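[job 4471] stage=fold_predict status=RUNNING
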Amino acid sequence: MAKPTQKELILKYLHDFGSITSWQAYIDLGITQTASRIYELKQQGYIFKKERVEKTNRYGKRCFFDKYMLVGNINEVLGT
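[job 4471] inference complete, writing structure tokens
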């Protein structure tokens, strides 16, 4: 059986959990370039909603990151 690609892992994670951040992708999947994989999936027709999330780090500083949610696939929308 072929090893799943990073894009396939991200899609499965989105299916299982509804959203993904770069931190979750790194910790849970070992993927360090989440935004690049999301970009590639967009090029393949996947549609994402992106939400800017704010957290406070361990040093009390605000930090921001993106949370991605899969909306659908353009091919499903167009019926192709």
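[job 4471] summary: The chain has four helices and three strands.
[job 4471] exit 0
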